[in-house]
Amino acid sequence: MLKSGTPEELVEFNPDIQEFDLTLLPGAATLELWRGMVPEGTYTKVFAYVTRVRGTLRSSGDVIDMKLPSNKLQLTHTFEITTENLTNFTFDITVVKAGQAENAKYILKPQAGESGTTQTPAPKTKGKP
Predict the structure, then answer these.
(1) Which of 98, 91, 38 is nearest to 67 (CA)?
(2) How far apart, in whole angstroms, are the C-alpha atoms of residue 86 and residue 90?
(3) Using one digit for the tens of pLDDT, what is the confidence trace for 39-48?
């Protein structure tokens, strides 16, 4: 996360979960990747760097590599972290198919309008994330 100020400060953390199944997260379902303390202040950007994205095609069961532009989820969104409030941050993404049949590529596309601190994670249901 990029903390505003002079100079700007990069606050980094490593998520607790390194791999997860997006098919378990349809609609408003969410998965907590990390929980911890973040220094108080105003933040202007959030980045999630991703080293690899793989998917399984429903039609064939084939496992394929997928593309995430710039290998990161990034959102420019100003928000405050205070000790008085719990802050949740949600990245919403969609899988987009580009091309036809065997030449098709699959791309993760961030949904900026559905991402940010204003989104409330859906309650977890029994047996699902």
Answers:
(1) 98
(2) 13
(3) 899 999 888 8
pLDDT at 125 over 60: no
**Which tokens belong to 89?**
């941050």
Instruction: Residue 33: name the closest of 16, 47, 50, 20 by CA.
Output: 16
Percent of the chain with pLDDT over 70: 91
- Look up tokens 């941050």; give the residue: 89
Which residue is it, tokens 């047996």?
127
Q: What is the pLDDT, as a whole number, of residue 121?
A: 58
| Amino acid in the structure at residue 70 | S
> Closest Cα partner for 114 from 77, 69, 79?
77
Peptide bond into 15 cis (omega under 30): no
What is the three-class DSSP state of 116? strand
What is the Cα–Cα distance from 31 to 28, expressed in whole angstroms?
Answer: 10
Largest CA distance in the chain: 52
